[in-house]
Amino acid sequence: xxxxxxxxxxxxxxxxxxxxxxxxxxSSLGAGLAMIAGIGPxxxxxxxxxxxxxxxxxxxxxxxxxxxxxxxGAAVAETSGILALVVALILLYGNPLVTAQGAGIILAASAIxxxxxMIAGIGPxxxxxxxxxxxxxxxxxxxRLQSSIVRTMFLGQAVAQTTGIYALIIALVLMFANPLTxxx
Amino acid sequence: xxxxxQLQFKIIKLSVVIxxxxxxxxxxxxxxxxxxxxxxxxxxLIGILNFMLLARTIEKAMKMVPSxxxxxxxxxxxxxxxxxxxxxxxxxxxxxxxxxxxxxxLLLIKxxxxxxxxxSDKEYYKRIFKRKEE
Lengths: 184, 134
Description:
The complex is a heterodimer.
Chain A (H helix, E strand, L loop, with lengths): L1 H14 L3 H16 L4 H20 L4 H15 L1 H15 L10 H15 L3 H20 L4 H31 L8
Chain B lengths: L4 H25 L3 H29 L4 H28 L5 H20 L3 H7 L6
Helix pairs in contact in B: 1-2, 1-4, 2-3, 2-4, 3-4
């Protein structure tokens, strides 16, 4: 029962604050959580660059093709980082929850939830970078198949991006049209 | 611009064309078009500059030892990430710039890359659904 007591005490403690204060504090947490997704493209692009450099060292003649594939792959791999950035900055500078109607604690939880959901952006970031890295490796080995490899890479990257977009949709729903606030 | 200059030029050219189209559409159909126009211009131009910066980073990274290239590319990604954060903060703070238009401008290059490379060859899709025995 001690655990329940702690939870009750914690909720009572939270309820002692004004709803607006709770929402603002939760938004700060949410923004910080969303930014964790920025790690993904960083790791992914780093991996791709490492593989690209390896491919060039193995086949210096194919350097131009490897660099081109790498550039295209790395540019796409950045997308989930930008999406996470957008959610974090909306929570900080254009937060719709501050003026929203509803129970303060639900709105505060929505802000944290929006940030949490954007952590999913790590997956597409790393995955797309991995695809870019493997493609540069493949082009280094067989430069003649460049166009086929690039197209396959983009197909994979586009599919990998979908989970990041789902996360963005959930984050935006939590911020702008949370259905749970209407259930009270 | 180095080894990838032609590719960069091709992608940037297409992005500018789409950007101009978006600007024309917003001038014709929106009530307060200048807010959108500024957003597209701001986001689009920074997106293009970011792409050029990425190209420079990659061209340099390709000449490095793999482990160093990895570090260099990751570090430069965070620099570009900070630039984008700054751009989005400015567009959120400034009333005369539409944030959605800025975001569209920033992501336009990625969209152009995906579309031009994915849908450029119909034969590729035909091959996916073709049976091997045929």
